[in-house]
C-alpha cells in the first residue's frame, strides 16, 4: 500500500501524498511542540513541513522511511525557526508578592490531551529513554526550551524518538561525534535541572481537595497538598514562585480573586490534570473563562501549578462562556 501511494504521489497525485503523510501528522505535531514549546508554532511548523515535503517529494530517494523523512524536514524547520530569532520576555506589571525567580520560558503553552490520542504511550524507538507520557509533560517541555537548539534536537532524536546514533546524526546532518557531544551536554543539563520522573496518576480525592481549596481561597489547605519543591508559574508573565513559603505568599495575595471562581471545568493537558476557571459575569449573569490551570503531581502531592491565559482555550476544548 505504502509503495503504491508513494509511486502515485511521485507521479503528482496530491491525494496519495496526503494519505502517506496524514498518519504521521499527530506525532509530528507533538515533536514540533517539544522543539518549540508552543502549540500554535508547532501547528505552523507542521503545515510548513507538509508543504515542503510535497514540493520536495521528487527528491525523496527512499533511503529512509517516509516517517523519518518527514521528521527530518520538521526538525530542520523547527531549528530554522529557533535560530532565526530569540524569544523575548513580555512586558508585565510587578507581581503582588516577590517572585522566587524570573522564568525564561514565557511562551510555553499546554498541549491538549485530545491531540495526543492515537499516539502510543510506550517508548517509540528501541533506544528511547523516555516514554511518551513523560516526554510531553510541562516540566520536560519547559526544560527542553532552555537547551540550545542543537542539543534539544539531539536529545529528542535519541532519547525520545529512539533513533540509533548513526541514523539520528544523518537525520540532523551532523557527524556522530557532534551528535554525541550535543546529547551529552543536553543530558547533563536535564539531570542538573528540575525534571522529575514519569508523572504519576493523581488520586481523584487529591484533585477534589485541590479544587475545593483553590476555589475557596483556603491557602493553608492548598499548601498542605503541595510538595516542598512546588513551583507556581503563570506564562506569559515571567514570575515564578518556588517552595511552599513562596507559594503561600502568592496565593495569599490572590485568594480574593480565587473565591470569585464559581466553576472549574476539568480537562487535561500534557497528560496532567487541568481545568478551565470560570467566574460569574455581573452583567450577563453567565460564566466566562478567566484562565486555564494545569498541575503536576509527584508522590501523591502537587509539585507544579501553571496558570495560562485564555488564549489557549480553543485547543483545550473549553468554551469562552457557559450559560450557568
Automatic annotation (TrEMBL):
GO terms for molecular function: DNA-directed RNA polymerase activity. Residues 20-87 form the RNA polymerase sigma-70 region domain. Pfam families: Sigma70_r2 (PF04542), Sigma70_r4_2 (PF08281), SnoaL_2 (PF12680). Keywords: Nucleotidyltransferase, Sigma factor, Transcription, Transcription regulation, Transferase. Residues 208-302 form the SnoaL-like domain. InterPro entries: NTF2-like_dom_sf (IPR032710), RNA_pol_sigma-70-like (IPR039425), RNA_pol_sigma-70_dom (IPR014284), RNA_pol_sigma-G_actinobac (IPR014305), RNA_pol_sigma70_r2 (IPR007627), RNA_pol_sigma70_r4_t2 (IPR013249), RNA_pol_sigma_r2 (IPR013325), RNA_pol_sigma_r3/r4-like (IPR013324). It is an enzyme of class 2 (transferase). Its EC number is 2.7.7.6. Residues 138-190 form the RNA polymerase sigma factor 70 region 4 type domain. Belongs to the sigma-70 factor family. ECF subfamily. Interacts transiently with the RNA polymerase catalytic core formed by RpoA, RpoB, RpoC and RpoZ (2 alpha, 1 beta, 1 beta' and 1 omega subunit) to form the RNA polymerase holoenzyme that can initiate transcription. NCBIfam families: PRK08241.1 (NF006089), sigma70-ECF (TIGR02937), SigX5 (TIGR02960). This is RNA polymerase subunit sigma-70. It comes from Agromyces aurantiacus. The lineage of its organism: Bacteria, Bacillati, Actinomycetota, Actinomycetes, Micrococcales.
